[in-house]
Amino acid sequence: MIAIILVNWKNYDDTHDCLQSLDLLDHTPTKIIVVDNESQEKKAAHLLKMFPNIILLPQVINLGFTGANNIGIQHALDLDVPYIMLLNNDTVVTSDFIRPLLTTLDASDDIGAVQPKILFFDAPHKIWNAGGLIQPFITYTKTIGFRKINSSQYDGIKEVDWITGCCILLKSEVVRAVGLLDDRFFAYYEDVDWSLRIRNKGYRLLCCADAPIYHKVSASSIHKTKTADGYLSPFVHFLNIRNHVFLVRLHSKGINAMLSHLYLLLKITGYVVYFSLRRRNKKLKMSLKGFIEGYKTPL
């Protein structure tokens, strides 16, 4: 039995499409848990009417990616299911995508988590994520294959440094050993932190490309129309910078920490110069706020 956890935040249309694709899964037994941030009663009721077999957990406020997923994860642990999957609500899956992930995860006791290859929904010939790499000297994270044409070089099963929270399958025993997502992150870099914590327990992380899924990408963070600060929400820049600082503080040691903090200083300097020149005042303010809170927040 696999518990599949989706987080919805005012995006019932994409959640509907994701659930509809999950309805077409092969015979893999699943429990689907939808955690509904800032739940809208009528829309939530309609979603439950359309998909009566889901477990709907409405939340009064927006708990972010971490807080909402943690509620779903804890619910799954309480149900004592052996496997847990986090899946973005703006994805569409194929009917057979779980089986190769499960086979890969069960191939060895030292495999802690696995992800599929993820393609752009609107450009399915291009890769959104085929696993993650980390440059430890500056704690720089990179997505394998991002925006590259999907080809055989991204096929097969490969060990990676980190796995995206867009779709991650774990054994429940690994979650119990490692703990829940770090709720201080709210969103962004929380999957890298979780991946590093999993690896610190001696587990390997894999990307299995045998059954890809499709991602609509940033449906909750990009404005529908262009604002004075562009399309991307300034709050995203706040989280991105603050959480990168969190990641460095939590996981970088020695000379790597020194170089990583220098890189963060160069990064925020670049943001300040760029947003000042483009007159993106809100993004400038939120970026500086994120940098300061990244260092001020007790960890």
Protein described:
The chain has 299 residues and is α/β, with parallel strands linked by helices. Helices cover 41% and strands 26% of the residues. The chain is built from nine helices and 14 strands. It has helices at residues 12-22, 41-50, 64-79, 98-105, 172-178, 190-200, 234-251, 254-278, 281-296, and strands at 2-9, 30-37, 55-58, 83-87, 91-92, 111-120, 127-129, 132-135, 140-143, 157-160, 167-171, 204-215, 222-227, 230-232. The strands form three sheets. Strands 1, 2, 3, 4, 5, 6, 7, 10, 11 and 12 form a ten-stranded mixed sheet that branches. Helix 7 packs parallel to helix 9 (281-296) and helix 8 (254-278) runs antiparallel to helix 9. The chain is globular.
Pick out its properties.
globular, 9 helices, 14 strands, ten-stranded mixed beta sheet, 299 residues, single chain, alpha/beta, two-stranded antiparallel sheet
